[in-house]
Amino acid sequence: MTAFPDAPRLTWKLSDLSETDLTVRTAWSGGVDRLWRTGTARGAGVRVCVLDSGVEPDHPEVGPLDGAFAVDTGPGGEPRIVKDVLGDTCGHGTACAGIIRQLAPDCELVSVRVLGGDFSGTGDALLAGLRWAVRERFDVINISLSTTRQAFAQGLRQLADEAYFGGTLLVAAAHNSRVESFPWRFSSVISVGSHGEADPLHLLYNPTPPVEFFARGIDVPAPWLGGTNRRCTGNSFATPHVAGLCALLHSSHRGLTPFQVKSLLHLGAANVSATPDSAPESAVPGRPDDRNGIR
Amino acid sequence: MNQPDPLIAAVSATVADSDSGHRDLLQSVVATARAIFGAQASSILLLDQSTGELVFEASSGRGENSLVGTRFPAGQGIAGWVAVSGEPMVVDDLSQETLFARDIAESTQYVPRTLMAAPLLHDEVVLGVLEVLDRAEGRPTTLDDMDLLAMFASQAAVSLALVQRNRLAQAVLRERGTEFDEVIRLVNALTQRMGPRRDAGLQLIAVLAELL
């Protein structure tokens, strides 16, 4: 969110170099590897929002939240944002928050419950929750859900674009079934599917999107309701791995734009090598020796 | 005329009580899903939008005799999440799970340790949830399992859509029943009779249609 401290003038074309500030606010080291991406960062100072089923307060594997909100129905039937009193209605949101904490233990974490409780509408609540979170200018918003309703696609797309140029990263889970849904389908978000590797930092870039990245999404240990934990499977649980990685990138390289973060994720992906013909390093599918191993 | 007229068959399927045929289809889906995954139980739940509840429509395996017709709120629990979010989920070690419809699970003396649940999506809308409980022990979850579950869910969604369409048609006929009672009786009579009487009946209807 510090990428654009002052709202810039709209720049439609680069006709006058003298009046256009092209200073890039982040240094470029020239190389990206896992250490560059994560370093010793723990996510301090990065604001992460989890749009989900809520997060259980004070779960030992999640810790204290920096805020908990919910979408409910206002007097006129319209969705509105209120303080959340229910916590998690399912366990799903607690699992996502816990996975982010595993990667970025010091990040600020805010929950927005968009499903469960009395509000069972999907698209309206998702839209209202996302609008609030984008305007709160979080650094990273984890969205491990989607809507299949075309009617919400345009509104979500506009919010995704607003977030992208406002410096907020939307990290969204691809649908687990072969169906169209939103917002993961948009190019302005970071979309995530699952791979079966057990390494939480193992990231794969998909050269044939719409799903752009794959992260750990099978048998993921994660916190669940009642202070317990579970092993969870699905793109929902791959997504917070990438959200956590984004938080680490933000905390070690402040001021990155969503475009830059996406580029860095690509450059640091396990199946992307410095040169196309670099020597194989391992036999794990999806790693540099098996460039076609991406599913 | 040895084969029923397709048009008559279509009309009779809509107005006559064909719910049991569709129920058989749902039952077949859960029985097959259960066998493929080597699971203890599998169920199809319908999302009742009017009450915000999930209703067991078909069940195979443990609890199958008591579950059909049972309702619980869709706002909580894993099946509820899958129904309102439209996303499938696989969660293992549910023994300590507090919100997985535990009241229902315990009423059947059965609390599952693992659960796979997928939304039944049809025309952008979630109609319900397919659940597979306690798949074969020691079998780790794979991405292929998710795909297989999604395939069964697609099949179940089509079946459930047919059930709902049929029920809607019947509800409309019930509401305006007096208007169509005789038509329904006529269709039922035609589908139950074969041979010359049926042919004669059809001819009579044709004449009536011309007169109208």
UniProtKB/TrEMBL annotation, chain A:
The active site is at 52 (charge relay system), 92 (charge relay system), 236 (charge relay system). The keyword Hydrolase applies. PROSITE patterns: SUBTILASE, SUBTILASE_ASP. Residues 43-269 form the Peptidase S8/S53 domain. InterPro entries: Peptidase_S8/S53_dom, Peptidase_S8/S53_dom_sf, Peptidase_S8_Asp-AS, Peptidase_S8_subtilisin-like, Peptidase_S8_subtilisin-rel, Serine_protease_KerA-like_dom. Residues 274-295 are annotated as: Disordered. Keywords: Hydrolase, Protease, Serine protease. Pfam families: Peptidase_S8 (PF00082). Belongs to the peptidase S8 family. This is S8 family serine peptidase. It comes from Actinacidiphila polyblastidii.
TrEMBL record, chain B:
Residues 21-170 form the GAF domain. It holds the Pfam family GAF. SMART domains: GAF. SUPFAM superfamilies: GAF domain-like (SSF55781). This is GAF domain-containing protein. InterPro entries: GAF, GAF-like_dom_sf.
